Amino acid sequence: MSADTARPRRRADAERSIARIVTAARATLSTDPHATVDDIVKAAGVGRMTLYGHFRTRQELVEAALADALRAGEETLAHVDLTGDARDALTRLLESSWSLVAESAALVEAAQGVLPAGRMRELHAAPAERLNELIERGRRQGVFRTDLPVFWLINTVHYVLHGAAEEIRAGRLDSADAGRVIVATVQAIVAVPVGTGGTASA
């Protein structure tokens, strides 16, 4: 085997090893946000030296796992139809995204414990921007409230989604009913207050 042939094969082997480790990290941390590197090594079926050859610290591994989960989520959300009435579009977005949030809640908890707040915002930039654009459009259409800042409405939606995930894990909210509860709650939060016409500025 020539050196030129060996190098691509080593790169391919390394990429498969990284993918295997990241997949194991996602699954393990989604079950237990406090999972150790040894737990992930065992789940991935690799040695510690192999893992540390790709990820120098647990923080790097957690970030890679979260980034991978967010990329997968973006692939799903990018196909959601957000055209037309902003209220209907928001319902479709929530119905598509709440289960993704529930699945990654423990992973997000793990990341919050090791990643700076600024990095967390960077990783969540795409979904935040999608929601921002939708709320802004709803305000222009006159169907979403304008008496509260957009950033506050966005953060509140995130609190509802993550809160629902925690309630599901605690067994107080049935996952089969979560979508309905989340949509009803968020729509009530962003709706124009009765009697205001939604014309107050923020």
Features:
202 residues, mainly alpha, Arc Repressor Mutant, subunit A, Tetracycline Repressor, domain 2, elongated, transcription regulation, transcription
Describe this structure as you would to a colleague.
- GO terms for molecular function: DNA-binding transcription factor activity; transcription cis-regulatory region binding.
- Residues 36-55 bind DNA.
- The chain is an all-alpha fold and 202 residues long.
- The chain folds into 2 domains: 1-56, Arc Repressor Mutant, subunit A; 65-202, Tetracycline Repressor, domain 2 (Orthogonal Bundle), CATH 1.10.357.10.
- The chain is 75% helix and 0% strand.
- The chain is built from 9 helices and no strands.
- It has helices at 3-31, 37-44, 48-54, 58-77, 86-112, 117-123, 125-141, 150-170, 175-190.
- The N and C termini lie far apart (67 Å).
- The model is unreliable at 198-202 (pLDDT under 50).
Structural class: mainly alpha
Number of helices: 9
Tell me which CATH architecture of the largest domain applies here: Orthogonal Bundle
Globally, the shape reads: elongated
What is the end-to-end distance? 67 Å
Fourth CATH level, the homologous superfamily of the largest domain: Tetracycline Repressor, domain 2
Q: H/E order of the elements?
A: HHHHHHHHH
Stretches with pLDDT under 50, minimum 5 residues = 198-202
According to CATH, the fold-level topology of the largest domain is Tetracycline Repressor, domain 2
Radius of gyration: 20 Å
Total count of domains: 2
- Count of β-strands: 0
Q: At the first level of CATH, what is the class of the largest domain? A: Mainly Alpha
Average of per-residue pLDDT values: 88
Question: What share of the residues lie within helices?
Answer: over 70%
Strand content: under 5%
* Largest sheet descriptor: none
What is the chains' assembly state? single chain
Protein name: TetR/AcrR family transcriptional regulator
Organism: Phytoactinopolyspora halotolerans
InterPro entries: Homeodomain-like_sf, HTH-type_TetR-like_transc_reg, HTH_TetR, Tet_transcr_reg_TetR-rel_C_sf
Pfam families: TetR_N
